[in-house]
Design a protein that fits this description.
With 105 residues, this protein is α+β, with helices and mostly antiparallel strands. It has one domain. The longest helix is centred in the first third of the chain and has 17 residues. The protein is globular, with a radius of gyration of 15 Å.
């Protein structure tokens, strides 16, 4: 729906979009052997910066020891496949140092 030069996008996402986010969440749980108690956030972000993909999927998760991890996949969630996720042996490099601030999560 367009109003003048401003485009208003619906905040209600389609079932397919929710399914894609859920699929990435479950793949993250599987890949990193996370428990059902570990929190996982999967979202899509738009980027307007030069060289940045128009939409990227951002994943953040917290383990039982309150350690936070995050990574980005440079495509919409609906296009993500299991092999796009970082390999399990990279988990330590995904950890966010205490006090580190970022815009993604």
């Amino acid at each position: 729906m367009a109003t003048g030069t401003t485009t208003i996008r619906s905040l209600v996402k389609s079932p397919e979009h929710r399914d894609a986010l859920s699929r990435v969440r479950e793949w993250t749980r599987e890949r990193f052997a996370l428990s059902e108690m570990d929190a996982i956030l999967v979202t899509e972000l738009a980027c307007g910066l030069p060289g940045c993909p128009p939409v990227e999927t951002v994943v953040a998760f917290w383990t039982g020891d309150a350690k936070r991890y995050h990574f980005k996949i440079f495509k919409p969630a609906r296009e993500v496949v299991f092999d796009d996720l970082p390999l399990v042996w990279l988990k330590d490099s995904l950890a966010v140092p205490e006090g580190f601030g970022c815009d993604c999560c």
